[in-house]
Amino acid sequence: MRSSVHLPALQLGENQSLKKADEWRRLLTITPVLLWVCWKDEHDRIPNIEPTIPPNAKTRPTHSRNCKALYFAILLLCAGVCMLVSRKISMSQARIGQDFLTQYNRTLQQLGIDLTINNHLSTHFAKFIKLYGPVYGWWLFPFERFNGMFEKVNTNGHDGGRMELTLMRYWVRCHLIYEYLLALPANAYTKEREYIEAVIKSEGCSERGGMMTELAIYRSEATTDRVKLPRVLGKHINLRIFLGPGTGGIYCLALDYCQRLYPDLHLIDNLSLDHGTAFVATRVARMLTYIHRYAFIVDKNTNEHCPVEIAALLGIKVAEKALHVCVVIRRMVSDEDIPPFPWCTYSDLLGIHVSYANRFHGYEIVPAVALDAPLALIPIHSERMGQELWASISFDHTGNELEVMDDDDEV
Does the entry feature the keyword Transmembrane helix, yes or no (predicted)? Predict the structure, then answer.
């Protein structure tokens, strides 16, 4: 996972402290797979039984502990939360997400589990989304975060709120810079961009906090193909031996990719005698550094998310064209022989994709903008297949993939 994606909370059964909002979100994202790993039987199914109560248990629960019923109730919770916290959402999706939470509450009642006021409040989210837009824009997590920062500040006896006011001004300023970055048009003046770069650099020199990290992330997404290029690029690589010495490397892939990218250049193999612009294997590509090995891409043919391994990040410059950033990937292998899992009904919404462990298709080259989201990779074992598998979970929260946007616009 990338650095901006925090890890879920650890030792949930032992650490009774209040979990952070981001920890809860990450936990809900991976919960369907984790519970399946813990509860599955020899047929990869969730058993329709109640586990025995340990003899040393201090209290005996009165509600139902049926594993299958609890699992599918939690699936409803995860599906509802994942849909409602998206940054882009239609009213149809909001109503569906609220319906998931309503079904979750009803299931808890049927199981004899006590409900709280939060369960009731969760049945009114669609109304507030209609009034105020996506939940991401009006939830209180940023303010709770700010209050947590206040608690750690040593005021050294100074009262009157002067230090708190200074911190508040700094926090608001960072948010204004962030909003300004979001609204910056593509044709903005160079001096304007340079000034923003200088502000971000000066603010982040001493210490990079949460907001400055967000600014840095967006700055990288707003630059060349969503990649912040280093000031000094590395040496050229030989595409004929790169990733495969003695097999021709990825030269043919790169040539075909650039021929489609720059049809006006009439690129040809530099060993060919044809007329055109020579695509020299040792002079067109440089390798760029990257931090995560796996990611989801959007298939341009099917518009579906597909988990891939990132083999290399390349900067390609041909003739007088601007530097283009592309990614060498290998798609994870998945087929119909992989059995269905309990979460399959909600797999598209939850972003869960199951594939064979350590098995990939051949190399491909795609533009860097095709990288859609980071992912969590969970190794699992299928008892029915007797084989190791990978469960890839997307950490994309920008929108939902369900095709239920037929009567309302996005909000």
Answer: yes
Backbone angles phi, psi at 332, to 5 degrees: -75, 145
Is 287 in the same domain as 373?
yes
pLDDT tops 70 at residue 270: yes
Task: Give the domain extent around 167.
Answer: 140-222
Express each pLDDT in 6-39 by its tens digit: 555 556 666 555 566 667 777 888 999 999 999 9
DSSP string, 291-350: S-SEEEEE-TTT--EEEEEEEEEEEE--TTSPPEEEEEEEEEP--TTSPP-TTGGGHHHH
Give whole-number Cα distances, 407 to 93, 95, 97, 234, 404, in Å: 10, 12, 16, 51, 8
C-alpha separations of 17 from 70, 155, 226, 241 in Å: 24, 25, 37, 53
Q: What is the chain's mean pLDDT, rounded?
A: 82
Contact 394, 371 (CB under 8 A): no
**Per-residue pLDDT tens over the stretch 335-372:** 999 999 999 999 988 999 999 999 999 999 999 888 88
Chain-centre distance for alpha carbon 371: 10
Q: How many CB atoms lie within 10 A of CB 143?
A: 10
Question: 145-162, pLDDT tens digit by residue?
Answer: 777 766 776 666 666 767
Which token pair is 13?
């059964």
Distance CA 188, CA 342 (A): 49
Q: Select from 115, 137, 159 the last residue of a domain.
A: 137
- Provide the token pair at 89: 């959402």
Q: Is residue 2 part of a domain?
A: no
Is 0.85 surpassed by the pTM of this model? no
Q: What angle do CA 120, 91, 409 make, to 5 degrees?
A: 165
- Is residue 352 domain-resident? yes
Residue 217 makes CB contacts below 8 A (sequence gap 6+) with: 4
**DSSP for residue 52:** P
**What residues form DSSP beta bridges with 389?**
356, 380
Q: Are 26 and 62 in contact (CB under 8 A)?
A: no
DSSP per-residue string spanning 219-242: HHHTSGGG----SS---B--TTTT
Number of domains in the chain: 3
C-alpha–C-alpha distance, residues 402 and 258, integer Å: 34
Same structural domain for residues 206 and 248?
Answer: no
